[in-house]
Prior knowledge:
The chain is α/β, with parallel strands linked by helices. It has one domain: Spore Coat Polysaccharide Biosynthesis Protein SpsA, Chain A (Alpha-Beta Complex), CATH 3.90.550. It is built from 5 helices and 9 strands. The chain has a 4-stranded mixed beta sheet. Strands 4-9-8 form a 3-stranded mixed beta sheet, with helices on one face. Strands 1-2 form a two-stranded parallel sheet. β8 (175-178), α5 (183-193) and β9 (198-201) form a beta-alpha-beta unit. The longest helix has 13 residues, at 133-145. It is globular, with a radius of gyration of 17 Å.
Amino acid sequence: MENIMDLVILYDNSLQDIKVEDFSGLQFHLFNSNELDGFFHYGNKKLPNPLIALIEFSKKKKYQHYLLMENDLVLSGNLRTFLMSVNKADCDYMHIATDILGGPEEHWPINYIRNNPFKNIYFSWSQIFYVSYRFLTDLAAFINENNSFYYEFLLPTMAYNRGYSIRQFENMGYNFQLSWGPAEIYEHLYQYERKHNTFYHPIKDLSIVDFR
């Protein structure tokens, strides 16, 4: 990460608090998901919304861009090379284009959407996404007016309908093997069939991860 971008861990301390001083060299932003309004979409524990935590963090630390990665997403490839490629991108939004389910209507959180102001609805898996500060502040303003869009719908839908500059991670030669789970499927793919420059999710057993 050095000389490329800052690494900040967004840590949910609702289940277990930590002493940040015990982790020398790491930066943390602590939040409590039970107290952060909207973190669980409409109170559904199956639908955590890390975009809400990122918006909260951005109020304390302003960057031109933010790259959010979930902790159970694993890359088979060189992370530094990936980060350098992302850092060179001059866009408001970069996202995963791959969708094994086939389209927004196949994702059940679409049923939460109310008072849709957009011509078209899009979905993007958002275990990783890249946003500009400008886009992030506009997202926050929209959520204040209409919080019915789960973030995996809101990010691409707002970006494509309102003319933000967009790129896809696949444009840079990266591939994705991901879904809701179960984890065993993607852990098997990563452990025995993994391909270069491919992200896998969910990976819960970190003992299988090659950190070299």
